[in-house]
Amino acid sequence: MERLQKVIAKAGVASRRKAEEYIVEGRVKVNGETVTELGTKVNPSKDAVEVDGVPLDKEEPVYHLLYKPTGVVSTSNDEKGRKVVTDFIESEQRIYPIGRLDYDTSGLLLLTNDGEFAHLLMHPRYKIEKEYIAKVKGIPERKRIKELETGIVLEDGKTAPAKAKVLSIDKKKQTAIVRLIIHEGKNRQVRRMFEAIGHPVVKLKRERYGFLTLGHLHPGESRPLKPIEVKQLKELAVTKPS
Q1: For FRET with 12, which of 49, 55, 64, 241 sits at 20 to 30 Å CA-CA?
Q2: Both 171 and 101 in a single domain?
Q3: Same domain, yes or no, for 21 and 71?
């Protein structure tokens, strides 16, 4: 027996968190009966589960790495009709992004139909590094960079210790290129951190997720993850932080 939200996630319909929302909203049926309790357990091989009236089809898990361009929404659909990340990947399965990158942020984004995998990578308990390259207004002093490293107090809490380094400066244009490595995933976190030290972001790109990099991909290009990469990501995620 498995929790209902876990079964839905495994089927590739949505992440576990989203599946929980579906259950509470009354969009899930088990053997013809609507279920709204999150503690419900089902037998995946015997019980008939439906989401929005559609029976679960157990799909083969797929994993993609996308170089997300700027001006693209990190969802599988957008009510405003804007381009979404799934527009760049041809897949017979229903895939969705693991986490998000802002509309105006480019870089490495993972997509999958494996809800358990997505849940594992996004769990705040595990410290998977994410490396960003930011072009910011002004030239940050060392004490400002130190603030990024020790943690910034935002409206939703203090950020965890990070790694930051000024890579280059342009005195004429009064801008700087800064590398920032974090392991959290607060909403618009990198931009808010730089705003908090008085150096708003002009341009932002995520270059690394764990051990994965963009390699030779160009904006809008993608590639499937290799089985060994999926295995290593799972191992990385379940490693308890020191």
Answers
A1: 241
A2: no
A3: no
**Do 194 and 218 share a domain, yes or no?**
no
CATH code, domain with 166:
3.30.70.1560
Share of the chain above pLDDT 90, in %: 64
Q: Are 204 and 215 found together in one domain?
A: no
- Catalytic entry in 52, 102, 114, 156: 102
10 lies in the same domain as 41: yes
Give the domain range for residue 116: 63-124+211-238
Do 97 and 51 fall into the same domain? Answer: no
Closest CA to 137 of 167, 177, 192, 101: 177
Confidence class of residue 242 from pLDDT cuts 50, 70 and 90?
very low
Please give the average per-residue pLDDT across 103-118, as a whole number. 92
pLDDT for the residue numbered 125: 72
Quick check: 128 pLDDT over 50? yes
114 is catalytic: no
pLDDT exceeds cutoff 80 at 12: no
Do 91 and 151 lie in one domain? The reply is: no
Q: How many domains does the chain have?
A: 3
Per-chain mean pLDDT for the chain:
91
Q: Which two tokens stand for residue 212?
A: 């994965």
